[in-house]
Design a protein that fits this description.
single chain, mainly alpha, 15 helices, 0% strand
């Protein structure tokens, strides 16, 4: 096993955080046009499809980073772990569910709902994850964190071979089975269910969480790294093209290759992680201390930017033009993504000047 990098921040992980939060903003920004237009041959649709497709690595990478960073540490007592890791997420979930709930009801829907009725509706939506689209991530990561005190003990008692077996079985259950089932459904109109592969501990985002720990701690053979990297590069090109063809077949946007368990998303995420891990020493040698501090600041704010960015997008950003040319659509997208990211980051930094705001909105995170 490789020794864990001793310094507090890990440069390649910071790079992955920044790229992933920009990809999340890009994913959400392009979603509106994709879900409202079936003009698959327009420049705007293709630009939106391309950038949305290549952004899909973001969520799996966030789960992988969480696994790499948290499972490497000593958990200590249950109480200390929950106070440090779970409670801040719960605070953020309640706060931002309330903020987005207010904005959605009174600014988007122009609701006349009274305060008591709103609170009842808010409580129901909070319980059932219906307040706003991107907050699902908090529910998923909180659920995983609840298992960490036990999962950590399991992981640390496993050999590398044990973890490879777990990850292989998880890959078959979640990625391969999903690909086969989705393909059969689109070819025959009937879904395929394989009951023997319904294995509880080997399902869901926990696999990405453990995969992040594995890739962070263990050095893969050069051939395996090259294969994963090349499959990742291929997936960046295959995902938008495959999405086009399945969407044309369905006469509507088909998200088969957009899913977090799609074969292309998986290899994009793993390829990104493997590539940047391999470049850690080279990046550290080239990036000076001041730039590392700036990168660290952006990376540290990524969770908070994730929470606030959709509100910023709703308030300040313009949408994609349906009749734009390729160049116009691409420029519009790049400018707006950077615009949303920068304003979100500055907003977070301003809010962080107040300790109470930092605690209430971000659970005490920077």
């Amino acid at each position: 096993m490789n020794s864990v990098i001793s310094r507090k921040r890990v440069l390649y992980v910071d790079f992955l955080r920044i790229l992933s939060i920009i990809a999340v903003i890009m994913l959400h920004y392009t979603a509106d046009l994709l879900t409202t237009s079936n003009d698959f041959n327009s420049a705007s649709w293709w630009i939106s499809n391309f950038f949305n497709s290549i952004s899909r690595f973001a969520v799996p990478v966030f789960f992988m980073i969480s696994g790499a960073m948290i499972l490497r540490t000593e958990i200590g007592t249950y109480r200390a772990f929950f106070r440090k890791r779970v409670v801040p997420l719960l605070i953020s979930l309640v706060s931002w569910s309330f903020i987005y709930g207010l904005y959605n009801q009174y600014f988007i829907l122009k609701s006349k709902m009274g305060a008591f009725e709103f609170l009842l509706d808010f409580g129901y939506r909070l319980l059932t994850d219906r307040n706003y689209v991107h907050l699902w991530f908090l529910y998923a990561i909180i659920a995983i964190y609840l298992t960490v005190p036990l999962v950590s003990k399991f992981i640390k008692s496993c050999s590398e071979r044990d973890l490879r077996y777990y990850l292989l079985l998880w890959f078959i259950v979640n990625i391969v089975c999903r690909l086969v089932s989705d393909s059969v459904e689109r070819l025959t109109g009937t879904g395929l269910s394989i009951p023997i592969l319904n294995i509880p501990f080997f399902m869901g985002y926990l696999g990405y969480f453990i995969l992040g720990y594995y890739l962070y701690h263990f050095d893969l053979p050069s051939r395996a790294k090259n294969i994963l990297f090349n499959l990742g590069v291929l997936s960046f090109f295959i995902a938008p093209v495959a999405t086009y063809f399945v969407s044309v077949h369905s006469s509507a946007l088909d998200e088969m290759f957009y899913g977090n368990y799609s074969i292309t998303t998986f290899f994009m995420a793993v390829g990104m992680f493997v590539y940047f891990r391999e470049k850690e020493d080279a990046m550290s040698a080239r990036v000076n201390h001041k730039l590392q501090m700036l990168i660290g600041s952006f990376a540290k704010a990524s969770f908070s930017v994730y929470l606030v960015h959709l509100l910023i997008e709703l308030i300040v950003a313009g949408g994609m033009e349906f009749q734009a040319t390729v160049l116009e659509a691409a420029l519009n997208l790049v400018i707006n993504i950077l615009y949303i990211f920068i304003i979100s980051y500055v907003t977070v930094k301003i809010l962080n000047l107040n300790k109470a705001a930092t605690y209430i909105l971000f659970g005490g995170r920077g």
